[in-house]
Write a structure and sequence with these properties.
The chain is an alpha+beta fold. It contains five helices and nine strands. The strands form two sheets. The protein has a seven-stranded mixed beta sheet. A two-stranded antiparallel ribbon has the order 6-7. The model has no long low-confidence stretch (mean pLDDT 96).
């Protein structure tokens, strides 16, 4: 994981609507940047819905929320529509952003090692500095972890 106190890596990606989103778009704002494995899977849905259910709290505290996964823009559109997610999701099929944020790596499942998305969240301050890094995400209570 990237270290707290370091500058967040610049990124550029496409959201669910094909719009370009950059880290610089959030200059002067606090950002919750979360990386998740796959749209519409149980853990990812629980995490997204927890963030959705607390979205107004995030906004009231000055945070923006942005999710990133390898899924396509079309998959993101379906996920957002099905669960009424109020925030954007970035499609990162070549894992450029995932790798820059050390959210891509070896995962162990059922005794096998595979490469995949490491569920990770970074909280980035108004100056683009990482002020929190969460690697052991509680998908059902992620907001509590972020706003602790």
């Amino acid at each position: 994981m990237l270290s707290i106190g370091t500058k967040a890596p610049a990124f550029e990606g496409q959201d669910e609507n094909g719009n370009t989103v950059r880290l610089s778009d959030f200059a002067g704002k606090k950002l919750v940047l979360y990386f998740y494995p796959k749209d519409s899977t149980p853990g990812c849905t629980a995490e997204a819905c927890d963030l959705r259910d607390n979205y107004e709290r995030f906004l009231a505290l000055g945070y923006q929320v942005l999710g990133v996964s390898k899924d396509s823009a079309a998959s993101h559109q379906r996920f957002i529509a099905k669960y009424e997610l109020p925030f954007h999701l970035i499609s990162d099929p070549d894992c450029t952003i995932l790798k820059a944020y050390e959210a891509w790596g070896v995962k162990k499942m059922y005794g096998r090692e595979t490469m995949g998305t490491l569920r990770t969240t970074y909280v980035i301050d108004e100056q683009g500095i990482i002020v929190d890094a969460i690697g052991k995400v509680n998908t059902k209570a992620h907001t509590v972890q972020i706003l602790k």
